[in-house]
Inverse folding.
């Protein structure tokens, strides 16, 4: 709900309070918070959450990466989006339509043509 409304501050508070409520954050709760940050134009926070998932023994999934890549694209951070696309490949995550669209956008807007050629080959 916070993600759809772009209420990234509330999403971060809820994520942070989960352990106090004896709830364990999971991939879904992290992805929702990352998505809320994306919609709130908070790409640094979205990336921080994505990276922070490993500290709670969670592995980002395609939804987590979708939201983080979209946050980077939305925040004009094309090269960071391309780095995340590379991580998707390393983790053997099957790209979906959203990731492919983000890859196209990041490659076009960064002016980098070679990453798109590599991405198409995957």
């Amino acid at each position: 709900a916070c993600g759809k409304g772009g209420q990234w501050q509330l999403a971060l508070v809820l994520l942070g309070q989960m352990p106090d409520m004896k709830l364990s954050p999971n991939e879904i709760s992290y992805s929702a918070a990352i998505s809320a940050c994306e919609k709130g134009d908070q790409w640094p926070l979205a990336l921080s959450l994505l990276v922070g998932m490993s500290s709670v023994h969670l592995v980002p999934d395609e939804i987590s990466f979708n939201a983080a890549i979209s946050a980077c694209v939305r925040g004009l951070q094309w090269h960071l989006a391309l780095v995340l696309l590379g991580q998707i490949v390393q983790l053997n995550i099957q790209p979906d339509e959203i990731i492919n669209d983000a890859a196209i956008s990041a490659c076009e807007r960064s002016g980098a043509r070679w990453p798109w050629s590599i991405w198409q080959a995957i």
Remarks:
- The chain has eight helices and no strands.
- The longest helix spans residues 97-110.
